[in-house]
Design goal:
Helices cover about 45% and strands about 10% of the residues. The protein is mainly alpha-helical.
């Protein structure tokens, strides 16, 4: 048994223990250890089955609670197993009744046996074994303890399909195996503070007469053991009790050992055939099952187990229809435990992988955990739908003429749902952990809402980064993010916490003019109010007698030499706009908003800004990716503003924007948000100034 033990230095270390040592030292063993979640379930099933077999288990609910609270010792299991009654029963290579195997297969091993890869579903992958067999002859030979674990996993999790057997061995039914007992449902195991605590928590109270018998080998005499010929070959048998269930022989297996030159014993060849067929389990044998829509919870490739965790916290809910089960017993305990949920992922009878989740459980907080899990899972699904809508908006803008068969693929690419759900899982686990720790539930839910909004928006920004930063890509990205903000702040779909979270998730900070740019704007405004047409004209005509003086005066306000060009360009644009529009209106003199807001004012009637194709093309040219904004396009924008008698941009802000153009894409993002999605910024600003309860 692979276990974690505590050494003399109080550090944990991996160690192999036999069954007797495992039960004798169970109180001091932190837990079993294996890299495969399915193997952990199979090993615990083995230990639980032996507890039922030896009669070391509680008989009533009250006795179970006494076992858990008083730490009932489990060394009695080792004492019973060490008796003469069990001599040879746990021998993996017994010549007549090998443990967990079908000795009827031994005569065929020499001629028809394959490599041990067939024994390990994680290596064989395909349970049917119909395509190619080269990988079955892999040179790696497992040690007996590795073969034991692989065989236990095979009994419990084999995906079914055609076996590597022949009809004339034991019958036609022997060549086809049904899905094993745990393949089609997720298993839940309560993890305690030690291996003994784990076993006590998971052992279900049952009368001694109803525990059943442990299946040590196919050679054990049993009147209803399956045969593979005749009319009863496809007939299943009912499970006789938990001992029978935990040791169910889902496959016929035969192992051939060999001793290597160094003396080590390894498994050399393997044969696998069909196993026993199980009739539907009664509710009392589904102690750990989480019921979803009246059926045990299953693992799906496209849906993580944590998304259906509210059913786990339902506990003894009448919908489970199981009476007193594992979760109702845990509800009586006053301490926190962890529940390990393990499921097998398959695709057309082929092994894909394992899915394992760990959930906190506190009996006194079950209702709070249930509500937190329910709301958390629902909010995550709604946030994913909001992100999917935003991805669709970006797709329709960036790829308006895409073929219908590519629309779904492009939306999935812009959504990046797997990464989004992976991040949601971390937030969900943190929420449950905070609630289980006794923290304020309201505060925990508020933190979860803020994290969910920030995570959704960050993931969307990352997935939309594949779009170009200018032109159509900028428009698609900004409108998609505005759609996402609006969807996440929808009071009909989300609680009030999300409104505050959405407001705090602004990505484009408002621009604050610097002292130098404000001084430049004040000097330019004075040229207009004082009717200094000489300097205004000198800023627009390069060969004017006062051009050098005007340029020197415009650049003197720049804080650094690198900003001199931006200040001079702003002064030229200002003079271009005001040279033939004498006005004393402060708004027209100083301007309003950034250049994106100003471009929205260009046009006629309702067809302004982005609704005017010509204005949109001009704006795309303005925000082209490059080291600087082309002066030609800026002059064209100012000319159109002057022709439309529209308010120009705020000149101090424009000077800073032009100076900071090479510092990143913040300026382009701010201009684009003002041009394409001004409503999103206005809503956030209004919400931010509204007092909240």
């Amino acid at each position: 048994m692979p276990a974690l033990t505590i050494g003399s230095d109080l550090g944990k270390r991996f160690q192999l223990l036999n069954l007797l040592e495992t039960f004798e030292r169970a109180e001091d063993i932190p837990g079993l250890a294996h890299q495969s979640p399915g193997a952990l379930i199979a090993l615990h099933d083995l230990l639980l089955g032996l507890m039922y077999e030896t009669g070391v288990h509680p008989r009533t609910q009250e006795q179970w609670r006494e076992w858990v609270e008083d730490r009932h010792p489990l060394d009695e299991v080792a004492k019973v197993l060490s008796g003469s009654e069990y001599d040879g029963r746990l021998d993996l290579f017994h010549p007549e009744r090998p443990f967990g195997q079908n000795p009827a297969l031994l005569p065929f091993l020499g001629r028809h046996g394959y490599g041990p890869a067939q024994l390990d579903i994680e290596r064989a992958r395909d349970g049917a074994q119909l395509v190619e067999h080269v990988h079955l002859h892999h040179e790696r030979r497992p040690a007996p303890h590795e073969a034991l674990v692989a065989m236990l996993v095979l009994h419990g999790y084999d995906t079914g399909g055609r076996m590597m057997a022949q009809n004339n061995w034991m019958g036609r039914a022997f060549t086809y195996g049904a899905a094993s007992r745990n393949t089609l449902r997720a298993r839940n195991l309560v993890i305690g503070s030690s291996l003994a605590d784990t076993l006590r928590l998971n052992i279900a109270p049952v009368a001694r007469s109803a525990a059943g018998r442990f299946n040590f080998s196919w050679a054990d005499p049993r009147p209803d053991r399956r045969v593979f010929t005749g009319p009863s070959a496809g007939r299943g048998r009912p499970v006789a009790g938990p001992a029978d269930l935990h040791s169910w022989l889902g496959r016929s297996v035969a192992l051939a050992p060999v001793r290597r030159a160094d003396g080590e014993v390894v498994v050399d060849r393997v044969l696998v055939g069909a196993g026993e067929l199980m009739t539907p389990l009664p509710p009392q044998l589904l102690q750990d099952a989480v019921m979803v829509a009246g059926r045990p919870q299953q693992a799906h490739i496209d849906r993580a187990l944590w998304r259906t965790s509210p059913a786990l916290y339902a506990g003894a809910d009448p919908q489970n229809a199981k009476g007193c089960d594992l979760f109702s017993r845990l509800e009586e305990l006053g301490r926190r435990v962890e529940i390990l949920a393990v499921g097998l992922l398959t695709s057309k009878s082929s092994f894909v992988g394992w899915v394992s989740e760990t959930f906190p459980f506190v009996g006194g907080l079950r209702e709070e955990l249930y509500l937190a899990a329910t709301d958390g899972a629902r909010w995550c699904e709604k946030a994913e739908r909001a992100a999917a809508g935003a991805a669709a908006v970006a797709r329709d803008i960036a790829f308006p003429r895409v073929r219908p068969d590519e629309r779904k693929r492009l939306a999935a690419r812009l959504l990046a749902a797997p990464l989004l759900w992976a991040r949601f899982e971390d937030l969900f686990r943190r929420l449950l952990d905070e609630v289980a720790s006794g923290d304020c539930e309201k505060a925990a839910r508020a933190r979860f809402a803020i994290g969910l909004v920030e995570t959704t928006r960050t993931s969307m920004q990352e997935s939309l980064s594949c779009l170009p930063e200018t032109g159509t890509g900028l428009q698609a990205r900004l409108r998609a993010l505005a759609f996402l903000d609006g969807a996440l702040s929808n009071a009909r779909a989300f609680p009030p916490e999300f409104l505050e979270a959405t407001v705090s998730a602004t990505t484009v900070a408002p621009a604050v003019p610097t002292d130098g740019s404000r001084a430049l704007a004040a000097w330019l405004a004075d040229l207009v109010t004082s009717r200094n047409h000489t300097l205004l004209k000198a800023l627009t005509v390069t060969e004017h007698p006062f051009t050098v003086e005007a340029e020197a005066m415009a650049t003197r306000f720049a804080p650094t030499d690198a900003d001199r060009g931006a200040h001079l360009l702003t002064a030229r644009l200002f003079a271009r706009y005001h040279r033939s529009i004498p006005t004393t209106d402060p708004v027209r003199i100083f301007g309003s908003g950034d250049l994106g807001s100003a471009c929205r004012r260009i046009g006629a009637g309702r067809d302004r800004g982005a609704r005017d194709p010509g204005v949109e093309r001009l704006f795309r040219l303005l925000v082209m990716t490059g080291r600087k904004v082309e002066e030609t396009y800026l002059m064209r924008a100012v000319e159109r503003l002057r022709a439309a008698n529209a308010v120009p941009p705020h000149w101090a802000t424009l000077a800073d924007d032009l100076a900071g153009w090479t510092c990143g894409k913040d300026v382009r993002e701010r201009w684009g948000e003002s041009f394409y999605t001004p409503g999103a910024r206005a809503r956030r600003k209004a919400a931010a100034t509204t007092p909240t309860a």
